[in-house]
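Bit of a strange request maybe. I'm writing a small parser for structure token strings and I need a real example to test against, not something I typed by hand. Could someone generate the tokens for this chain?
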Amino acid sequence: MSYNYFGKKILILGMGITGISCLNFFLRRGIKPKIIDESKCPVNFTKIPKKIEYSLGNLKNKWILESDLIIISPGISSFKPILIKARLLGIEILSDIELFAREVTIPIISITGTNGKSTVATMIAKIAKNAGYKVSLGGNIGFPVLKMLDKKVDLYIIELSSFQLENTFTLKSKIAVILNITEDHINRYPQGFQQYKNTKISIYKQAEICIINSNDKLKNLVHNKKKTWISFGTSQSDYYVSYQNNDAILFYKHKKILNANEILLSGDHNYNNVLVSIAISDAMKFPRNHVINTLKNFSNLPHRCQIIKHEKGISWINDSKSTNVNSTTVALQSIKTSGIIRLLLGGDSKFANFNTLKIYFKNLKIKIYCFGKDGIKLSKICKKKSIYVETLEQAIILVSKQVKSGDTVLLSPGCSSLDQFSNFEERGNFFIKLIKEIT
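Reply from user aminoacidic:
Good idea to test on real output. This should exercise your parser:
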């Protein structure tokens, strides 16, 4: 069913790639919305056609309260007082995902989770292509979903953040997946972790097949018999990992699928990502041989525990995609070294509780280099092993002077990059560039 937006006063909040894709969506339909950005000089300002009314520098309250329909970019909080007021006045506030969901008739695989979304979404896209599907991959991975509507495909795969799900109401996924739910973005949610969790869970609302992580204790959802529920993660799940003679083996209902030493990825988090990809593929009835062959040749995406250099006995690892505590925990668990782990930790912690790292800091041979907005606060978690510097650059230069053969240098900041960089990719690329110059 295609919705009619004619005659409505439409306002787009944000001029990032999402906002521009929303603007183009309406312009193609002969509708001229207004657009606002909180920045005084947004990067994409030159992409705004001359005929469009715009406002820069703040969210113009008058425009918001005069609107019939507001399309909100994920970077803007849904809980701003002016937007709460707009909702109370009956003004509709939607995400670009909701606009997309209203237009789509072909199957959608929707993937969310605190960590691992991009990896699994990319795995599934590769598996589907190898199985002969025409696929389009988009969403939070960096390609706006509304641009996907122009492509002739058999299957959409979308990566979704909680921010995108906040204002998404009619998404009907063939398969919906939550990879994991751990503490993140607590600064965004007035009611804390439970509100973040409920936002993630909303992905299942109108899904046909729901894949759940048994570790997330979402059993109360499974009583809904109208849906198919598939589980992974624990030994009681449909899909699970079992260790036999130190080998990790992937199973489906006690039938062996794959030995983990046959794939390029390592670490429990990656084995879970592979498990989920198999679960999705089985639900889609992709031929198992295409699935296994694709997974055997799949390597880490950039900025995700990516080994940049191994020289003179020193490993340099770029895990800049680590933007929450859990992802840093996973990175630390995956490192096997006889030397010192030199951890680069810092940025905007988003009010998350980093005390869960204390046990690792205590038990590991580790030196922590804290930087950025919350660097001082982070350096107090384990004062004996920590040092604070202002910037990532200062931290890298200091590490380069102290690192010895056998050590592992790990950029796994556990924080948002937005205090000093425009995104995690820029932070990771800066790390790579500096490492290559220094070494």
